[in-house]
Design a protein that fits this description.
heterodimer; A: 454 residues; Sulfite Oxidase, Chain A, domain 2; Immunoglobulin-like; 3 domains; 5-stranded mixed β-sheet; B: mainly alpha; Cytochrome Bc1 Complex, Chain D, domain 2; 38% helix
């Protein structure tokens, strides 16, 4: 018999048994062969095991009680408009929130909250789930008192140092573009070995938004910048840390770097830099300076704290790489992923994210056998430069052990490396820029765990 | 900046227009011409107030000086609680001092960075440029009072740290000139490289063109046998709480149960009485603020304000009542126990708050 004719709540699987999922694997097989009596008998047995008051047995034998007994939302008055003036997710979605990884840092003001990629759809990160990384706590800045300054490292570097209010910046011609942002330390806990259980903690310092703002190039031109002498810009925040990072002028001149105030159709969230942040597509998140107050054009790099003490990549020869910025091509399967359990055997639409700091994703391959063989996944439109790309691939899981991997190729032809290749050059102590292929082991029980393979 | 805030908006705007106009005229047809009225020239005092960065070539370094002794005083008052008496603490942040030797100071390379067994990398093991420390302490420290130190205090604190790291002697006076000599003794000054392909531009002249790795998109019979080389340690399964409560309650997967809390538990918003009023069906006839069939709860609360009506009203809900609010009678309520009804009535008499 056709499974699709059985209410899905009756089929269910391994996770939740009676009353919704009262059939075990053997019984499912019987029902699938057309034995309705097995279905009825199993359901009656399941019902007998629970309190009669919650699900009257008389109704149950005719089908799904969630159909036969009208639920309260079908038999009561709903809430009025604007009951929640700024809408919130359903109370049933409370599990999907930003979370910290215990023990990673000791001070929440200088820490990380990871985005729940394990439940994500599409490519846009809801602003309330955008990952957080602060260096000295976050501030909610009064936008009327916020100023943005452009100056030069030396006289003549800009003709006229300028000051802009938010009014000024929001009057200028704006652009809106979707870009991913990934912390340089994303997946940093996994350099040496498997360390954390889920994709939220392995890859959750990753988000993607539509940002709205003014190209920094335009603002530099308004100040009369000397773009022959100027080789670098310094971006500086208005918060307590007044964090600084050096950005190459080449990237600014491409027009991609934005002085942004908008995020997903509204203003930036305070945790993401309200009212102004730098958007540096393709480059690690630390350079996207939040609460942006100043940009200085200069002829030399700045060796800021986050370019000389942190965000320096330790190599096997004991040197540190400085000014590592580009987030190279990377991907990860988000559903199913570590710490999850498949509800049953059968059909699944494997889904994940791919991105590259060097441009568009060209293709993504998925392996179910730990990298021995690969199938090309489907890329969901739109596929945009320096933006997350969602890929999917259909999979009929037969209940056997599997090792799922994804491998992205970007438009430069660069193929995401495996751990062996990456460690051969960068060792295991770098912390930063781990873009290795991620492996998820699926056990016959349906339980999935984070593993590394060779 | 306060000077500017005190001025009227219009004045600032007029000044801005004049200044930007002047700049535009001076530079010929510039971008500023295109956006009249937007932005204004910064005053020298404004630039000075914000332009506090110090580069490795010491451009931007303020004049001043400090001593180890003064530095220690400031350290003990403002720094030691987080960083430890000797900058060695890892209780709050990664340690600042330690892991460097006299030989490192001579060579400019920190030998302990080659040791995989070395427990932590301190600031002085990594930082190649003394300017970085001056810049950062000045802009961001102390942790809860950033930008409160004077340049002389920054020189003193930095002098004390350099002394702890055995880079300068006890009597060393750190100032805007001697700092240049200290740079030549920084233990990891030769330990940095820009020879990589991860800088998105020109500028250093040392960048590699080629990426570190060159994987290929092999599609079948790739590599040798697959071996699992690392799995999640047992303690890490539970260290992150109950994974079942970190996944959606519906869909193709559930989170694995690694804790005791109920992943399906729902926090109903609002007070208990409000929740009960909703679940027991009361809100079909009574609105919080609006009459439906029966009166709104806010009206009920107003009518019985300051009157001891709890038991009377509970009785009316249990047994039903009529004639108090109009012709429509309220039938006896069987959807909630008497105890629950009491909770509901208490909530109504408290003004029926929605939250």
């Amino acid at each position: 018999m056709d499974d699709s004719k059985i209410p899905s709540a009756l089929l269910g699987g391994r996770i939740r048994r009676a009353p919704e999922n009262f059939l075990d694997g053997a019984a499912i097989g019987e029902v699938s062969k057309g034995r309705r009596d097995v279905l009825r008998a199993s359901f009656a047995a399941a019902i007998a095991g629970i309190a009669a008051a919650t699900r009257p047995a008389a109704a149950a034998s005719d089908g799904d009680p969630d159909i036969l007994e009208l639920p309260p939302w079908s038999t009561s008055l709903g809430l009025p408009v604007a009951a929640v003036p700024y809408g919130m997710p359903s109370k049933y979605e409370r599990n999907l929130i930003r979370r910290q990884s215990p023990g990673l840092t000791q001070v929440a003001g200088s820490s990380v909250a990871f985005a729940p990629l394990q439940g994500s759809f599409g490519i846009i990160t809801p602003s309330g789930l955008h990952f957080e990384r602060h260096h000295q706590g976050w501030q909610d800045i009064d936008p009327k008192r916020h100023r943005f300054m452009i100056n030069g490292s030396a006289p003549g570097m800009v003709k006229t140092p300028l000051v802009f209010t938010m009014d000024d910046l929001m009057r200028l011609p704006s652009v809106s573009r979707m870009y991913f942002i990934e912390c340089g330390a994303n997946t940093g806990m996994e350099w040496g070995n498997v360390a954390v259980p889920t994709v939220q903690y392995t890859h959750g310092m990753l988000s993607c938004s539509e940002f709205t703002g003014v190209p920094l190039r335009l603002l530099l031109e308004m100040a009369g910048a000397d773009l022959k002498r100027g080789k670098f810009v310094l971006a500086e925040g208005a918060d307590g840390s007044s964090m600084t990072r050096t950005i190459p002028i080449d990237l600014v001149m491409s027009g991609e770097v934005l002085v942004a105030y908008g995020q997903n159709g509204e203003m930036l969230r305070p945790e993401n830099g309200y009212p102004l942040r730098l958007v540096v597509p393709g480059v690690q998140g630390v350079s996207w300076v939040k609460w942006l107050r100043r940009v200085e054009l200069g002829d030399k790099p700045y060796a800021a704290k986050d370019e000389a003490v942190h965000y320096v990549d330790l190599m096997p020869d004991g040197t540190h790489r400085q000014y590592t910025s580009i987030q190279e091509c990377k991907s990860v399967i988000t559903t199913p992923s570590g710490g999850q359990t498949l509800v049953d055997k059968g059909f699944f639409n494997v889904s994940g994210l791919a991105w590259s700091g060097r441009g568009k994703i060209r293709k993504v391959d998925v392996s179910f056998d730990g990298g021995k063989s690969w199938q090309e996944a489907k890329l969901q439109a739109p596929v945009q430069s320096k933006c997350l790309t969602r890929f999917t691939l259909n999979w009929n899981w037969n209940g056997e052990r599997a090792i799922l991997q994804s491998r992205a190729t970007d438009e430069t032809g660069f193929v995401q490396p495996n751990y062996r290749q990456l460690r051969a050059v960068r060792g295991t102590r770098s912390i930063y820029h781990n873009n290795a292929i991620q492996s998820w082991l699926v056990e016959p029980s349906g339980e999935i765990s984070n593993v590394q393979v060779a | 900046m306060s000077r500017w805030r005190e001025m009227s908006f219009g004045f600032v705007r007029r000044a801005a227009l004049v200044a930007v106009f002047a700049a535009a005229v001076a530079s010929g047809a510039s971008a500023a011409d295109k956006y009249p009225g937007v932005g204004r020239a910064a005053t020298p005092a404004e630039v000075e107030a914000w332009d506090i960065d110090v580069r490795p070539d010491f451009q931007g370094l303020p004049k001043g000086s400090g001593t180890v002794e003064k530095g220690q005083e400031i350290w003990e008052a403002k720094c030691a609680s987080c960083h430890g008496t000797f900058g060695e603490s890892n209780k709050v942040f990664t340690p600042l001092i330690g892991g460097t030797t006299k030989e490192d100071v001579e060579k400019g390379r920190v030998a302990s960075l080659l040791r995989p067994d070395y427990p932590q990398r301190t600031t002085f093991m990594k930082v190649p440029t003394i300017s970085t420390l001056f810049d950062y302490i000045r802009r961001a420290m102390p942790w809860n009072e950033p930008k409160s130190l004077t340049p002389d205090e920054v020189y003193s604190v930095l002098d004390f740290m350099l002394n702890l790291a055995e880079i300068v002697p006890d009597d060393f006076v750190l100032d805007d000139q001697s700092i240049r000599e200290v740079q030549k003794r920084m233990p990891n000054r030769n330990g940095m490289s820009t020879n990589h392909a991860l800088w998105p531009g020109a500028g250093f002249g040392t960048e590699k063109k080629k990426a570190d790795t060159a994987n290929t998109a092999c599609m079948k019979d790739c590599g040798g046998p697959v071996q699992i080389t690392s799995t999640l340690p047992d303690h890490a399964w539970t260290a992150h709480g109950n994974l079942a409560s970190q996944n959606r309650r519906i869909g193709p997967v559930r989170g694995r149960v690694t804790g005791n809390d109920d992943p399906d538990a729902i926090d109903e918003p609002g007070p208990a009485g409000f929740k009960l009023a909703q679940s027991a069906g009361c809100m079909g006839c009574h609105g919080l603020n609006n009459k439906i069939v029966g009166p709104s709860y806010v009206d009920v609360a107003a009518k019985y304000k300051d009157k001891d009506m709890l038991d009377t009203l509970v009785g009316r809900v249990v047994k039903g009542g009529e004639g108090v609010w109009g012709e429509a009678a309220m039938p006896p309520q069987e959807g909630a126990s008497e105890g629950e009804i009491k909770t509901i009535v208490e909530w109504i008499l408290a003004g029926a708050p929605g939250r």
